[in-house]
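Run folding on both entries below.
>entry_1
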Amino acid sequence: MMAWSLAGHDRGKLYVIIREEGDFVWLCDGRLRPLENPKKKRRKHIQIMKRIPAELGAVAPEKWKNEEIKHCICVVKKELAGGSYV
């Protein structure tokens, strides 16, 4: 799934959720927060998007790459700007 950050210095940024554990999630954007160094954030500080682009949905989370995550975030932002993805 994907999520928007609602609080903190990264407010308004789109991430991919790569792991969930209790009240925390680990977020990745493929650029500043690569898979090797995900951001740990409380669940109450994010807004989850229920849909995920087909590019990521077709691949198992263990096999995701930073380039794929960057591409999917870019695609979702473009679709949101056009109004066709919500």
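>entry_2
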Amino acid sequence: MRHFGHLDDDVRHRLFHREPEHFTRGGDPAVLSTALGATLYSPATRPRLLEDIRKQTARGVVSMVLCLEDAIDDRDVPAGEANLVARLTELAAATTHVEDGPLLFIRVRTPEQIGDLTRRLGPAVRQLSGFVLPKFTEESGSAFLEALTAAEAASGHRLFAMPVLESPDLAHLETRREVLSGVSRVLEKYRDRVLAVRLGVTDLCSAYGLRRSPDLTAYDVALVAGVIGDVVNVLGRADGTGFTVTGPVWEYFPVQERMFKPQLRRSPFLQTETDPPGDEVRRRIIEHDLDGLIREIELDRANGLLGKTCIHPSHVPAVHALSVVTHEEFSDAGDILHEDRAGGGVMRSVYTNKMNEVKPHRAWAQRIMLRAAAFGVAREDITFAELLSACLCP
């Protein structure tokens, strides 16, 4: 699989200076964690779950979470489990190359579900990339990760964990440091099992009875912004001790009455002063409240997050279009990582608009190259608006 593989060859050639690379479920964890992109959540109880997986894969989704936790009613858990087992068994029977297809994860409620579902799936467990672990703390996390390790040993199939940080103790200032230190300890113990750390911002807000509007990003809510900063501070370091931390969910998808004027400028969408096709893309973004999502994705990246939890397919194109490395970023990263500059130094960028300092910017440049492999590099004259336009479903 690869990002933007659903686009025609000629479209990719027009958009990309360097096209996204292929990857498989069995690939390098560093590549997979970078390539998660827009991770689309789906309730495990959906009657047409298998059709949904196939349809969204054909539209460019490469990672999905099939949810047995908050997305479904407590009473529906047994039906959701049965549906998952049946549909993944069907998918396995119809799949020729087991390493192809989307990265599929099951969000469980309890550690016991991991072993139980792995046994019930049998050979079909090979359709899974792992499990999402909710309400993750040091205490609950150890049980979840022990269960995942045992399930991997029993099945002979590699399984990753994606813990979700969303407990009230993480939101509360007086306990946050202790919670993050404990989470860091347990994740370090199981480092090889952890693909990415996810943030449950909705649950964090609920501890204070808060819900942001579609005109505000998570970073406009001071309490949430503080938690995100502390999570990245402890778990997102670039010194080899950190993990990929993914962006929080964007809750909105229907058209809402807007309180504030849209902040999405017209200029990135226009090739000329009057460009109806470009203006149409901008109109569709605003109508579907995607301008707020776009602002939040940019702030995610500025704050050290990569990828995003998504609850609606309309969010996927925006996440992926903004994950493509710009030609300018790629040029700067290449200069910084050039072998002749291993000793350090400072240089003016190829675009002559910034300073590239080799040693301080090296970790940034390495992350850019990982993202370039996963999402590709745009041509010099291609903006995110054109990438988004190519990906928007009709």
